[in-house]
Amino acid sequence: MQPVSPTAEASDRLEVRLAESDEEVVAAQALRYRVFYEEMGAKPTSAMRERHSDFDDFDRVSDHLLVIDRAKGKGGAGVVGTYRLIRRQVGESFGRFYTEGEYDIANILANGGNFMELGRSCVDAAHRNGATMKKLWDGIAAYVFDHGIDLMFGCASLPGTDPRQLAGHLSYLYHHHLAPESLRPRALPHLYVDMALAPADSHNPRRALAELPPLIKGYLRLGGFVGDGAVIDHQFNTTDICVMVKTDLITAKYRAHYDRNVRDPSGED
User: Fold this and answer.
1) pTM
2) Is 251 inside a domain boundary?
3) In angstroms, what CA-CA distances link 121 with 37, 71, 117, 164, 165?
4) 44 close to 54: Cβ distance less than 8 angstroms
5) 33: Cβ–Cβ under 8 A, 6 or more apart, which residues?
6) Cα–Cα distance, 112 to 244 (Å, whole number)
7) Parent domain of 53
8) Which of 103, 131, 150 is the endpoint of a domain?
9) 189: Cβ–Cβ under 8 A, 6 or more apart, which residues?
10) pLDDT tens, 29-81?
11) C-alpha closest to that of 132 among 214, 59, 208, 52
């Protein structure tokens, strides 16, 4: 992956890059455990609890994007943010994608082009700020640019497992951001929860967007859209939706930034 900002000042203590060792992947898994299980109340398996680690079969075939705070230490010691990325050819070689445990993604497989699945996004509580999130998004943009990704998709979560309490969020997403039919995934029949729990005119769209969790709001602001049906994830104590983002805006923005750095080695905007 090309460096996101090759001329960044040395004083910038945050860096973003892919994991380069097993030790760094283990650190990302430990961060995921702290956030998902200790902080957000997800239910770990006995093996996860014993190791204080969130892990599954997908970790060994994924690229792990990391934000590292050099002030905390080098490598794994400094990991404060992470995303898990699985390119199309990798997931197809592995035989499945994580999202397929909740959604029928046949339309994405048929029409999604050179896509990637993303997930397991989390940031250390002490680093939940604009700087860390910007680094994560810079890293995703660079990855998309480097690999010619056309579409990103994955499961995103709303807190809680009672759809009635999330009716405003789910209905807004369904009525205003439903994916085109040619790409639209659908929750598996035995997991399907209707998202259209309120009429389209029952909420203020601007307010509804502003009240969404930051990650989902970020996807939508990039032109993202959602699949049909929500899924209750009892292990993670969340209600999941499938989010897709065409990468045109991300690629164009990154290319403009990269071109500016090439023309102006100082890196200043």
Assistant:
1) 0.87
2) no
3) 14, 22, 12, 25, 24
4) yes
5) 44, 48, 52, 53, 54
6) 10
7) 1-150
8) 150
9) none
10) 999 999 999 999 999 999 999 999 999 999 999 999 999 999 999 999 999 99
11) 214
